[in-house]
């Protein structure tokens, strides 16, 4: 009898789970989950590609599920090139890193305007949590005979005007406070990332 009661409790718990999440992660049956970026300059939505970038998409969703991107900043802006974020809070303190992931830049997705890709160090397999939006068709970031590229794992599906606002911010070539290059003068905030319910 106690096994029946235990099974009933488990089933009840599963029924109460949000449709956006499950025991296996965020929308495990959705190959193209959508996420809403709520920023200090407006919202935009992206669609991930779990088919072509499964490891990268799941890694990104792990940070989303943990709320780890909430109240981070876009700390790097190179006009006409990239807008990078996800790694630091408003005090420029580094956020917790979960793990390094294999590079999926050879998946066929290109670094064209409006796509989202993973930032990394010079070693190709060092992407963790930082991401960037392509502000142009950046073919130099795609894999080539010269080596690995930067893994694209999604694209903007709405709110392109927000990306344009972010891209139009003033960026300083060298920031004396952080000693970094290409820092927005007033770094915009990624307030949170929400999972868009499946239709």
Summarize the structure.
This protein is of the alpha+beta class and 199 residues long.
Write down the overall geometry: globular
How helix-rich are the residues, as a percent range? 10-25%
Largest sheet: 8 strands, antiparallel, barrel
Q: Give the overall pLDDT as a whole number.
A: 90
Distance between the termini: 39 Å
Q: Can you say what the CATH homologous superfamily is?
A: Cyclophilin-like
Low-confidence segments, given as residue ranges, are 1-23
Count of domain modules: 1
Number of strands: 12
Structural classification: alpha+beta
Strand content: 25-35%
How many DSSP H or I helices? 3
Give the strand order of the largest sheet, numbering strands 1, 2, ... along the chain: 3-4-9-7-8-6-5-12
Named at the architecture level, the CATH assignment is Beta Barrel
CATH topology grouping: Cyclophilin
H/E series: HEEEEHEEEEEHEEE
Instruction: Determine and state the CATH class.
Output: Mainly Beta
The radius of gyration over CA amounts to 18 Å
Protein architecture, described:
The protein is of the alpha+beta class. It has one domain: Cyclophilin-like (Cyclophilin, Beta Barrel), CATH 2.40.100.10. The protein is 18% helix and 32% strand. The chain is built from three helices and twelve strands, in the order αββββαβββββαβββ. The strands form three sheets. The protein has an eight-stranded antiparallel β-barrel. The chain has a two-stranded antiparallel ribbon with strand order 1-2. The radius of gyration is 18 Å and the shape is globular. It starts with a helix and ends with a strand. The N terminus is likely disordered.
């Amino acid at each position: 009898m106690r096994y029946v009661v235990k099974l009933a409790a488990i089933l009840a718990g599963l029924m109460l789970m949000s449709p956006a999440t499950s025991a296996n992660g965020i929308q495990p049956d959705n190959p193209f989950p959508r996420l809403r970026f709520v920023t200090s300059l407006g919202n935009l939505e992206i669609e991930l590609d779990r088919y072509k970038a499964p490891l990268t998409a799941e890694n990104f969703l792990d940070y989303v599920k943990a709320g780890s991107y909430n109240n981070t900043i876009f700390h790097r802006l190179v006009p006409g090139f990239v807008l990078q974020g996800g790694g630091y809070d408003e005090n420029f303190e580094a956020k917790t890193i979960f793990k390094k992931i294999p590079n999926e830049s050879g998946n066929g997705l290109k670094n064209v305007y409006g796509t989202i890709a993973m930032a990394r160090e010079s070693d190709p397999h060092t992407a963790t949590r930082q991401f960037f939006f392509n502000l142009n068709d950046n073919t130099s970031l795609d894999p080539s005979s010269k080596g690995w590229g930067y893994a694209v794992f999604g694209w903007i599906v709405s709110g392109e005007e927000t990306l344009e606002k972010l891209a139009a911010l003033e960026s300083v070539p060298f920031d004396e406070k952080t000693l970094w290059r290409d820092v927005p003068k007033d770094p915009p905030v990624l307030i949170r990332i929400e999972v868009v319910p499946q239709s």
